Every structure is written in C-alpha cells, then in structure tokens.
C-alpha cells in the first residue's frame, strides 16, 4: 500500500477526535480539519482534555499524551487534503453534506487518494457516486469511544475496488482494530442491531414499566452488557440515535425503526445525553453521571 | 568473522557489528521511531564520531537496509561489502519452554517462534520481524536466536511453579520464565573471571537494575531463581512497574475505579514503581535529586526500591545456601552509588560490605567495591548483552559449519 505517513481527518466532533487520536497514537501524522481554524483548535483542545482524563484513569502516560498531540495538527481549510494518501470524513450524519464534501475532495485530492467515510447508516454506493473515483471510496465505521472499541466495520460500496479494501484492512490492523466486512446495507451490523434495542428500552420507559435506572440495571446484570441501553443512548447522543433511526426508516421503511415518541420529545427539548448534561440521566461537565440524591 | 547483533523492538532496531577475530566492536548504533514520521538512525563507528541520519523509515526491512548501507558507506562505514557480514545474532525475548539455549534459525525454529507469540506479544513479533527482514536483505547467511529466557531454564520446578491450579501451567505455560538472562549470565560469568575462581564453584547474586530490573541467583554457574516471572512485571520495584504485590489488590482497584483490562495493565506497567510512589520521576537520578531537596515521597520510593532488592538478596542467599558475590549491573546498578550503598547497608553479619570510597568512585566501570575484609565480594560490572549474543552466534555458526563438514566428509 502507498505509505500512510499522513492522514487527513475531516470533522472535529466526537468521532473525528476519536479517530484522530487513535491514528496519531500509532505514530502517523494527522491533520484534523474543521469548518474553520478555531473549531479545529477546539477539537484539538478537547482531545487534550480527554487524554488528561485517560491519564487519571491510568490508561496512558504523560509522555504518551505528548506524543499523540505532537502528531495532530488542526487546520481550517481543505488544502492539506491535496497531498494526503487517505482522507477520512467524520462530519455530521447527513447525506447531502457528505456528498458535497466527497465531491469537493474528489476535485482536489490526488488520483488514487482513498476517501473514507465514517458513516454508520448512509449508502457508500450513493456517497461514492458523487465522486469520479467510486473505486477509491469506502466506509470505515468506527464506534465510540474509538480508542476503546476494538472493532471497525469495513463497508464496501458497489464499485469499491479490491485494492482499496486491502489498503483499508491493513490500515485497520495498524490501528489494532478487528475489522468486520459488511455489505452495503443501511446500518450494517452494529447500528442496525443496537438501534432497535435502544428504541425498545425507551418504549419500556415511556410506558412506565420500569425506571430508567432499573431498565439499565436489568439489562446490565441480566445479560452482561457493559452499559445499560439508556446510558448507552445518552453516551452516543440522542440526536445521533434519532438520525440513525430516521435513516434506517427512510431506507428500509419498516415500522420497527420508528423513533420512540419519548426520543423525539427529548431531542426537541435539547436533552441530548452526556454532551448536554441531561438525557435519560444527568451528567456533570466532565461527563460523569450524577447519581440521584447526590 | 564479522557478526551483526540485532535487537529489534516495536519501533526501534539496535545494532552492533563485531569483528570476532580481533574481538572488537566495529560499529554500533540504533534506528528509532520506525514507522513514524522522522525516524532517526544513529551510527557510531568504533574509531570515528557518531553520525545521525533522519528520514522516513517505514518498517524493519527499511531500517535494516539503512543499517546495512551505513555499515557499507565510504564515509561512515566499517566494511566494504554485504558479504563481510558473516552471521547475524538476534536477541529474542521469549524462548518459552522450547528454547533452552541459543539456536540456529531455520524454518522450523521460526514456526515454533510464531506459535509462541502469545507468551510475549509485546516483544517476540518485533524480534521475528527483524529476522525476516534480515533474511530478505542479507540472503542466506547463518542467523542465530539468543533468548532472554534461556539462561533461566535451569531454574528447578519448585522455583518456577506458581501456587495456582497445575492445569493452568499445563494449558497456558503459566510459570516463571525470567528475563534479562543474557545480562545475568554475562555479569555472573565475568564476576568469576574477576574473582579468578571457577564459575562452577560460586554462588552469585546478580542485580540487573535498569529501567526494568531483575535479580538472579546463580548457583554453580546456573540460574536457580530470578525475580521476574511469567512476565517482566514481577519482582523488584522498577522505574514504572510495580513488581511483587498482593494479586488481590489489582482486582480490588479494578472494581473500585471501574478499570478496563487495558487500564489495569498500564497502571501496573507504566504508572507504578518509582514514578508511582514518588510522583516525581521514573529516573533514579531525578529521584535522588528530589530526595536531596527533602521530597519525602522521593525518599520513600528510593527506600522501598532498595529494600526490595535487599529482601531478594536475603532470600536468594538462603536458596543457594551460601553467597560468594553480589553483582550490580544495568543503568542504575552501574551508576548509582547511592542505591548500592543503601542495599549493602548492614550486611556485615553475612560477611558482605562495601568500601565507601571505592563505591563512590565507581561509575560504569568494572570494579570490586567490597570492603577489604568482606568474605562476600560486591562487584560492579557493566553488562554487555551484545557481546554474549555475538559469541553465542559465533559458537553456533562454527559448530554448524563443522557439522556440515563432517556430513560431507562421510
């Protein structure tokens, strides 16, 4: 594979930050691009904060943090993409926005540059169709938190070439992630299965069958999940969960992907989970759960 | 015969080229940051100043290509042709129960090494990458694997078995292997030479105190116990590793702080030891500095570090039923008079003790620092693992050549 000494990541949100950090930790230089330079710097600072939290939890050392940050450069425009062998987009889960971005990248990038989308529900074939290089477009679906989840889903579009698939497999192994090959189909494996599960938990809550706390306890203790469904939804972001559901509903037209009314209500009220401090549970500014009565 | 000695880590390759006929190193150096941007090759010919080259070095193959080409270069080189490298000795961390001595590398050996990766997932894969890279670059020249664990293969079963269900030993080879074997062997053997006694007549305790640290009981020329165990985490307090502790502690902390396996592993390997106790540094020099300034946790880390060594010296002298010499080696053992003095405090009752003046003036040189009346000698011996690897390689390659001659003459 062409040498991957520099990777461009577009989108400084939770996923973009997570991917940047994991790539930089392997010793590869990362350019993290957001809409403007101050947003990119903000993303960089948030990575730094998260690494500090990680040190507190003994996960990494101070020098490992320095080494990671030294390899991440924030940028406010797309120029660095011109020379990169691989560009990963992790912007909002919106078909039109992603298509526009990929078309633009297709114009400015070198021929052969692999364009990677971190989409979880959108069609890679459709995204690829907005470029003149559908053979070089591929999906690589990371899960949050990127540094902890040892899995990636590799999604090939209809025209994705074998060479691109091989390159991305090798990339996954450099990142120490186990790849799962999935055929292009909305939601792939992970999102497709987890979303109705979360939605069902919300229905159970809405129908007053059990408290949020007890629903999570039941699923954690009963089935050995690390997190209960409602905590998980809070962590993922309720707006994200809802947009996944809507994409699945749109693509597959099945009733089971209809977002629970409670979810719609909470998203409208801006209660989006950990990132806003309020979802099914309450969180402090650090993102730690505030337990009832504390 | 010129022998290239290689020690391949995850992102580094250390090398040394020996001329065995003259018994001298021709050049040494290392490549760091392999696979990262801005890799650096530092090269020091025996008789000329060091040079540094930086550039993109993406994998071990490229790294070893660079090493070979600088060894050949008109300005910095020490040999004229690739064929002037007659054999390669590789440091391989883990030999498992299979490899009890150095071995000529062939397809079968590589297969066994592959099967053993699980035992040393952090080291063996890189060591093997170095071997494959050499095969590609240097072609069909003899290569020898020298194992860190090999010297400890003589440890008796009652010393290597853990107090765990025996089935775990059978299933997963959960037992003491020990590490730093090449270093323990070199300094123990050298101690016998310095004392002008037979290696086979002596009881020696060797303290390899580097960033990783271990201690070994060498009885009649054989390792009979060592402080590192199934992994390098056991035993002495080290720069960033905890060493011995109640295994229930980590289970308890994992529960209390909801740590993942990864976090628990980093806690014990990278946040513990000297840095963990002191909060100052994992480097003994910084710690001594802080201790001098009155930092109590630096004092505590230093005291705990030295106490743990003393405790092991006590156990091992009983295990061997006698003691003739204590050897200090490794960065801290060779350089820190403070550590040596603290460890050797109040040892006159077993006939050991050091001369303060000799100790104070010894830094990274071979020296007998014992007090004049000491029955148990205390020595400082800078380690030289590369030389052992070169010698082992020479022996095995020599033997192999003889075998072939015998076979063809029949």
Short account of what is shown:
The complex is a heterodimer of chains A (294) and B (410). Chain A has eleven helices and ten strands.
| Fold-level CATH name of the largest domain in chain B | Nucleotidyltransferase, domain 5
Radius of gyration of chain A: 19 Å
In the sheet with the most strands of chain B, the strands line up as 5-4-3-2-1-6-8-7
The secondary-structure element order of chain A is EHEHHEEHEHEEHEHHHHHEE
Largest interface (C-beta under 8 Å): A-B, 14 and 18 residues
Mean pLDDT over the full residue set of chain A:
92
The largest pleated sheet of chain A is described as: 8 strands, mixed
SS-based class of chain B:
alpha/beta
CATH architecture call of the largest domain in chain A: 3-Layer(aba) Sandwich
Query: Approximately how much beta-strand content do the residues of chain B carry?
Result: 15-25%
Spatial strand order of the main sheet of chain A: 3-2-1-4-5-6-7-8
Fourth CATH level, the homologous superfamily of the largest domain in chain A: NAD(P)-binding Rossmann-like Domain
How far is the N terminus from the C terminus of chain B?
Answer: 27 Å
Mean pLDDT of chain B: 93
Can you give a write-up of this model?
The complex is a heterodimer of chains A (294) and B (410). Chain A is an alpha/beta fold. Chain A is 45% helix and 15% strand. Chain A is built from eleven helices and ten strands. In chain A, the strands form two sheets. An eight-stranded mixed sheet of chain A has the order 3-2-1-4-5-6-7-8, with helices on both faces. Chain A has a two-stranded antiparallel sheet with strand order 9-10. Chain A starts with 5 loop residues before the first strand and ends with a strand. By secondary structure, chain B is an alpha/beta fold. In chain B, strand 9 (203-209) and strand 10 form a beta hairpin. In chain B, helix 10 crosses helix 11 and helix 11 (296-319) packs across helix 13 (337-343). The longest helix of chain B has 25 residues, at 385-409. Chain B is globular, with a radius of gyration of 22 Å. Chains A and B meet through loops of A and helix 8 of B.
